[in-house]
Predict the structure.
Amino acid sequence: MRFGTIPAVRAAAFLVLAGLAAAQDGPIRDSGPTVARPRNTTPGAPAEPDLPPIPSRMKKNAEDAGGSLPSFKSDVDLVTVDVAVLDNKGHFLPGIPGGNFRVLEDNVPQRIQKVELGEAPMTVALLIEFSNLFQRYWGPAWYQTLQLAWGFASTLKPQDYCAVIAYDMKPEILTDFTTDRSKVQEALGRLQIASWSEANLYDALIDTTGRMSGIEGRKAIVLISSGIDTFSKTTFDKTRKALQENGVPIYAVGLMQALRIMAEARMDPITRMDFLQADNQMRTFAAETGGQSFFPRFEGEFSSIFQAVHQALRSQYVISYSSSNKTHDGAFRKIKIDLVNPATNEPLPVKDEKGKPIKYTVVAKAGYKAPRAVE
């Protein structure tokens, strides 16, 4: 889907958003070239240096890890699942005994080895749409969004790794996984003027999750995007399958709700449907990978959303089990996590401090791709 200039939307957006002031101590300005900048093809113009190539696999920087590289699972049959139990307001429910969790793999009950709270270091990728498709309408609010993204990154623990990837026609790693927050700040500061009016979301997601799939431990992608895809090489269905197999939780934050509210009366039905489809795609990617999705209608909501993402990443149960299926065929295996009373195998009722029943949701990835035997 392509969008032309929408003068009325643009004017309304700037009237509403022009008053937003940028916070201090945010992304560094003027710190480097823009993402996927166009080449100067003017005859006689000096040659421009090539942009740094994207590594074949994302890595945690050796200087940050004392020369170590990411560790990979040695027990190929050990499955680790991050699980969040949320009430109907999205709040994490703590203190659930490990014996109340039940894991079904392809409808077969599994023997749980360990249930613990997720306190291990995390590996987080900030995947940000940086396309002239919409950034030209976003105005001062775009810089504030980057401020809040930086605020999220700065609240990660010192031992957590963070990378910044931006995408338009293709993804570009602005900083690889690092514990050096100044590199993250500098990377976000590069996102000032978009060059291309394309947003290949599917390609960017598959590329990023594929690079992260082999990294052991807790990991997640924080996706800041409109949810629109313009002309990726792959399709929605293939992307959905790849995300399930790669098993990296996605926390999706929508960008365009405020502008859409102002422009909705002027939208044709097809454009309105395209935006609804984009939201549904983001919800699907998040839900099936064990993450969450957020669609702020006002700029002031971003701060609380990033706080909620931070809490979601920290407030999780980590379930480890050894799969009873020892066949190494590379097939996708479905996972279902329930809370049950082990004595009756019935759904576990949860009550608040006043004894009132609490409606809850168990959030976990939909499955994983089994290892394939090496011939």
Notes: The longest strand covers residues 78-87. The chain has a mean pLDDT of 78. The CA atoms of residues 37 and 195 lie 6 Å apart.
